[in-house]
Amino acid sequence: MNNPILVVEDDRKMARMVKAYLEGAGYRVMHFEKGKEAIEAALKELPLLVVLDLKLPDISGEEVCQELKELGDVPIIMLTSKSLEEERITGFALGADDYVVKPFSPRELVYRVRAVLKRAQKKGLGEDSSLSFNNGLLTIDGQTYQVTKQGASIKLTPTEIKILFTLASAPQKVFTREELVEHALGYQFEGYERSIDAHIKHIRQKTGDDPKNPTFIHTIYGVGYKFSGKPDA
């Protein structure tokens, strides 16, 4: 049997509606009202995807998202009444794959689930899936999603790796934020392209790339970003 979709939502009426639509689309669904219960279930059986409310009675949805991403590349759609841009950006920076603001159409949610799963099922990030720069200083493996700097492993989220790989696949090419969303994440985030800035900030912090004097990712003001590493032969 296929792995389940976890619906983590304390509004029982809404959860029943979401569960019914997802089951009608052929998915196996498990519902939890509390974040800790969902994490415990995920430890026993890695979910196919998680529909996650940010406002939960025990721990925050952001904490649940972080815990789930520690388990593996679990696709997450955040489901919340929050609508401020900064909150959406924070969600994406934590590794969320999509963000649906209440009230929403359950049919649209099913479409978004299918779209996220379709992207997640794609294997590898590109035909030339192993990249190395500056005499091995930085390496990126698109098949295993491993990034190393000076031989030491760097823990990036899957979204951060996809963005880094997209930039590194075309050194010196300037990508707009919209292009990075489309190429790295697979579809338009309906105005959420500014979330790329949060992802770039996290990539720089984790790789030790000083934004004031960068070795790899340069900001092209008013346009977007480019990767300036020198490819190894």
Protein topology:
Elements: E1 5-8, H1 12-24, E2 29-32, H2 35-44, E3 49-53, H3 61-71, E4 76-80, H4 85-93, E5 98-101, H5 106-120, E6 130-133, E7 138-141, E8 146-149, E9 152-154, H6 158-168, E10 175-176, H7 177-185, H8 195-207, E11 217-220, E12 224-227
Parallel strand pairs: 1-2, 1-3, 3-4, 4-5
Antiparallel strand pairs: 6-7, 7-8, 8-9, 10-12, 11-12
Helix pairs in contact: 1-5, 2-3, 4-8, 6-7, 6-8
Structural notes for this entry:
This protein is an alpha/beta fold and 233 residues long. Helices cover 39% and strands 20% of the residues. It is built from eight helices and twelve strands. A five-stranded parallel β-sheet has the order 2-1-3-4-5, with helices on both faces. α1 crosses α5.
Order of strands across the biggest sheet? Answer: 2-1-3-4-5
Q: How many DSSP H or I helices?
A: 8
Average of pLDDT: 84
The SS-based structural class is: alpha/beta
| Strand and helix order | EHEHEHEHEHEEEEHEHHEE
Main beta-sheet annotation: 5 strands, parallel
- Gross geometry: elongated
Number of distinct beta strands? 12
Low-confidence segments: none
Strand-residue proportion: 15-25%
Query: N- to C-terminal separation?
Result: 46 Å
Bin the helical content.
Answer: 25-40%
